[in-house]
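INFO batch 0412 | record 1 of 1 | parsing
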Amino acid sequence: MTPAPPAIGGDAYARRRRHFLEAIGEASAALFVSAPVAVRSHDVEFPYRQDNDFLYLTGFPEPESAALLIPNHDEGEFHLFVRPRDPERETWTGRRAGVDGARSRFGADAAHEIGELDELVPKLAERCERFFFALGRDRAANERALRWLQHWQQGRPRLGAGPRALCDPSDIVHAMRLVKDPEEIDILRAAAAVAGAAHENAMRSVRPGMREFEVEAQLAYDFRRRGASGPAYPSIVAGGANATILHYVDNDATLAAEDLLLIDAGAELGGYCSDVTRTFPIGRAFDEAQRDLYETVLRAQKAAIEAVRPGVAFDAPHHAALEVLVEGLLSVGLLSGDAAKLIDGEAYRPYYMHRTSHWLGLDVHDVGAYRHDGEARKLEPGMVLTIEPGLYVAADAAEAKYRGIGIRIEDDVAVTEDGHDVLSAGIPKEVDELEALRHEALAGT
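INFO prediction complete | emitting C-alpha cells
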C-alpha cells in the first residue's frame, strides 16, 4: 500500500496568514481569489488546480471561493467565501466544504457563501486605507475589485476613510513562498522520490523501437500509482536529436538504439512540484562522443551543486557550471580560444542557451525575485532550486560526431544552514550506473 504523502497542517496555514497580516499592517485588507475553472472544450473542463497564492494562505482547494484577510477586524481576521452545500450538485461534481467546513476544517474566523462577496467585502474593508489585490487572469474578479475601489473612493468624503488604491500583495506572498518551511521541504523531497522512482523505472523498461509516448505513459502511471496527482508539467521524452529542443513535448518519435533518451519529468504531490531530468542510452552504452558530452554535463552539475550554500549569489551555481561546460566544449573542439573570453562573450550559447537554475515549489518555475536591489539574490536556508546544466548540439553542427546530441541532468536542491541538500539524490546519473541499468534491462534481447 502506498503511504500517505506528507501534508501541510492547519497550523502552518495559520502561521502564514499571521505573517502576511503583520506584513500588510493595520488599516489594510487583502483579497485572494480562487483560480477560475478552465474549459477544455465545449462542456468538458480541465482538472481543477487551485491558485497557488490562495492555496498557500488557506489550503482551500475548491473553485468559486475567496479569502479576505483584515488585521484585527472585530468580525474576524480571516473571512472565507465558499460555494454553499448543494446535495444535487455534489452528486455530480463532488463534495463541498460549505460554510461550516470552511470554519471547522480550514480555520476561517468567519465564513460566507460566495454569493455574498459583493455585499460584504465593501462593508468589511470600507474603513481600511489600503486594499491588497493582485490583478490577474480572472477578468470578472479584476472588474469587481476596481468597482469596489470606485465605491470606496466615492464614500471617502462621508466616512473619512476607505481604500485609496489597489496594492499588489504578490511581493509579500512570493517572498514568503520563496523560503520553504520544513513541512514543505518534506513534501518536495517526497515529490522528488516519486519522480525518481519513475525515472529509474524508465531506465529499466525503455527498449529500442518504442515510441516516446509509451515512455511518457509509463511515467504518468508511475506518478499516479505512487500518490502524485500527476505530472508537475508536460513530460519531455526526447530521443536523439529531439533532445536538442528544450521544451519538446510532441513525444511521438520512435527510439533508436544508437541514440540517447532525455527525460525531463516531475511529479506534483500535495500541490508541490519536483523537476528532474536524466539522460541515458537507449542501447546498452554511451558511444565515445555521447560519453564525452555527458561527462562534461555531469561534472558541470556537480560543480554547480557544490556552489549552493547560504550567502552566495543565486547566479553562483550557473557560473560554476559555465566554467566546466566551456572547458568541456574546448576539449572536444566545439569551441576554441580563451575560456574566460568565451564565457564573457557568451560563445557557449549555441550549445547551452538556458540558465542553470530556477526556484521550485508550488510552481515548477516557482515565484520569488531572482534579483534584489539590482544584485543577484543571495541564497538563504529554505530556498529550493533546480540545478540543470545541459549541452545541445544542433543537427547541422560542424562536428559531425556530436550532431544531434542533447543532454541535460537536473536535480532539486534545498539550501540548508550549512550548505545544501539534494532532494532528488539517489536517482542514477553516473555513467557506470546508467550503463549497468541498460545492460541489465536489455539482457537477452
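INFO post-check: DSSP finds 13 helices and 21 strands in the chain.
INFO record closed
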